[in-house]
Amino acid sequence: MIIDDQTYDVIIIGTGAGGGTLARKLAVTGKKILVLERGEFLEKESSELEDIEVFKKELYHAPEQWFDKNGETFYPQTSYSVGGNTKIYSGALMRMRERDFEEVQHQKGVSPEWPLKYADFEPYYSEAEALYQVHGKAGDDPTEPPRSADYPFAPVEHEPHVAEICTALSEQGLHPAYLPIGLGDQGRTDAEDTGISPAIKGSENVTLKTSAKVVGLITNPSGLAIKAVQVEIGDECFLFLGNIIVLACGAINSAALLLRSCNEKWPDGIANRNGLVGRNLMKQSMTVLMQQSTSANSGLFQRSVSINDFYWGDPDFPFPMGHIQNSGGILQDVIFSEAPPIFSVLTKVMPNFSLRQLATRSIGWWLQTEDLPMPDNRVRFEKNKIYLDYELNNLEAHDRLLYRWQEALKQVDRSAKQSIFAKNIHPHGSTPIQVVAHQCGTCRFGEDPDTSVLNLNCRTHDIDNLYVVDSSFFPSSSSTSPALTVIANALRVADHLIKRLG
Ligand SMILES: Cc1cc2nc3c(=O)[nH]c(=O)nc-3n(C[C@H](O)[C@H](O)[C@H](O)COP(=O)(O)OP(=O)(O)OC[C@H]3O[C@@H](n4cnc5c(N)ncnc54)[C@H](O)[C@@H]3O)c2cc1C
């Protein structure tokens, strides 16, 4: 074991939406910051996702197996790299709705209230949108929460086929809105280009170590402070000392790290006095659906449409159903490559030409519904393995959303102007367990130490120098895409840490 002889003011573990953003905002403090990332920089070409090989070979699976609750193995679709999952995400950067912060009755249970409200997050959403260069249009979505500022950039225009669909949807009385997307000169903005790279380039006080997998948190003898972080770099094991430790490994890996670091003082895992670490894992119900057309599109374009007409329900089903967005060009969408039964088996054996033909004659749709926090849906760490005990819930709401959307698309297909769309062919598939894209909730924040893991500053209730600043803190998942809320929260916690660091 090699013990590093410096003590850092802050050690941040993970460089995704949470960690990368936090590093950038803390960099200007001049404090000595160490950032530890288990992955490497992705080569630019492989992060652009514009190649049929991405689609075909199920790239972007972590090089490790996880286990479901029955002990079946799977390779999680998650990116261990500088920038984390924002290197493979679609860049849809949505605010949660105002009501998502309140207790909401769903058909199958209750989505809990957040201890902070939309108004507390609003300034940070604006800051996040400016930082990640979000393109959008205020006022065209009936569920949109109030905003203190317009989007920093104009919306991304729809691909012509998608524009036609939007016109037909509007004629049905629906409200297709522009999907907010983070876009910069290099394509989608991510936590490498927007977070980590500016942090290390502009500031000598920030050190990034890549291929540095954190495997343990070492407490002091009382168990009330983290003294050191144990890290595997290549074949060697290091100890790094820090005054403040921030976990930002993503909701599953941060929980796993707390659980695996158990010691005499914390036999069930660090900061896990109430047994809540790892519990209430959420990842939303997700379905991908294809609308087939008789003429080709490029297969390479940004997501641009957001439909929230069913978000809070309708007269026939007065419970939240969820959110719909188009997939963007299907050849760019890594999640589509995972979704049976549409493509997964067929595409692995299809020649590239046929696959491209199929993909470019399709518009993909992406449906997501809030899943409710359940204590039994959890991350477990046993015998050096990560288990996800997870069962989807709130399924009828998702089925109803799917049914509503199929009916809406059938009308689009029937509409005289839309003759380019094949009639009523809408194959769809729900995403399997390895799609952990929207994971959240394993260390929820709250005021009560008995019912939450983190306090309102995302510091663990019991360990004064330990924070978790990734999607773990969510008390509920909402049906929106999570990254903007993770980014906004990191900016919020950064303000707290800046004050604390003096
Ligand atoms: C294919 C895909 C598409 C998506 N599309 C969207 C979208 O369009 N919009 C949206 O809002 N969200 C989207 N998401 C989700 C979004 O990417 C996540 O919500 C967001 O990245 C979560 O941020 P995070 O900081 O919690 O974790 P991550 O971004 O996952 O970052 C975690 C980081 O920690 C590192 N790490 C993990 N364990 C360790 C360890 N032990 N030691 C050191 N480092 C470690 C990882 O390598 C990674 O860099 C998508 C996700 C995927 C996978």
- Would you identify the CATH H-level superfamily? FAD/NAD(P)-binding domain
- Under CATH, the topology can be stated as FAD/NAD(P)-binding domain
Largest sheet composition:
7 strands, mixed
Taking the alpha carbons of the first and last residues, their distance comes to 33 Å
CATH class: Alpha Beta
Bound molecules: flavin-adenine dinucleotide
Count up the helices: 11
InterPro entries: FAD/NAD-bd_sf, GMC_OxRdtase_N, GMC_OxRtase_C, P2Ox-like
Family: Belongs to the GMC oxidoreductase family.
Pfam family, one: GMC_oxred_N
Domain Glucose-methanol-choline oxidoreductase N-terminal: 11-283
Task: Describe this protein's structure.
- It contains 11 helices and 22 strands.
- It has 502 residues and is an alpha+beta fold.
- The protein has one domain: FAD/NAD(P)-binding domain.
- The chain binds flavin-adenine dinucleotide.
- Keywords: FAD, Flavoprotein, Oxidoreductase.
- InterPro entries: FAD/NAD-bd_sf, GMC_OxRdtase_N, GMC_OxRtase_C, P2Ox-like.
- GO terms for molecular function: flavin adenine dinucleotide binding; oxidoreductase activity, acting on CH-OH group of donors.
- Its cofactor is FAD.
